[in-house]
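Hey,
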Amino acid sequence: MKTILYSSLFCLLLSIPAGAQKLTLAVGPVEVNPAVETKAAQQGGRVQLDRIVQSTDSEMINSFQQTRRFDLFARSDLSAVMSEQDLAQSGNLDLNDPNTAEAFRLAGVQYLVVTSINDFQDYIEKATFGAIGKSVTKRIIRIGAIAKIYDTTTGKLLESTRVNTDMQDIQDDPDFESVKNSLLSESLVSQISKKLADRVANRVVDVLYPAKIVGQTGKLVLFNRGDGFDIEKGDVWVVYAQGEEMVDPDTGESLGSVEAEVGKIRVVEVLPKVTRAEVIEDYGIEKLQVVRPEAEE
């Protein structure tokens, strides 16, 4: 029976018409808050911070490519545009300057992502297990960033979101010395950077391309998220029906749409381009409705 249902879902997915043209996205270089740089230097962690920032900068493009949602703007071209608009130094757009949006329109860029590191922690913890007479030293690296998404055609900030990640390097070192004085391994730097870049990319996709149900049959659904996103078997997602668009009566600006929860689904399998889930609560789930991860309590 399951085979028949899965086959039906696959056929439904194949029958979905091709989506609209991909959005064009420029990914700005990763910046660091000056206060974070100063603190890292005072605590002897500037080298570690610089390595993570450089690695994250490299990982960012790959993370956005893996989402398969955007046509990415060339980094070399972006540098020229950002230099013209003085974005590399400010991290912001001058909304009063009509040339800001115009420069990006001419360059063919629809959206710009600017990521800045606003928190960096590198510290040591020691755990002692009395029952076995063993101590373990943990070096913990925490990175916090703010990702800003701009609509370059209007110069408006669409979303500003906080992204955090941490990794642990565990070693047997009673005196802490080898952990305190050693550089982070290339492997650990790569893991931290990839995790941070993936979370930024996933958040941008959630804002510009909300996850939606693309296939449904019986108690099984498919939604358009797959490998490369932070999704695991057993995760619960909430389904929302989109209602009437809300408009600010004073500015005429869109405030989004009214949403109503219409059910919940549980992830069964994560595939390369889609995720398969089973319906666990249904108050009117339909194709093309938006789905989001259930908030943690």
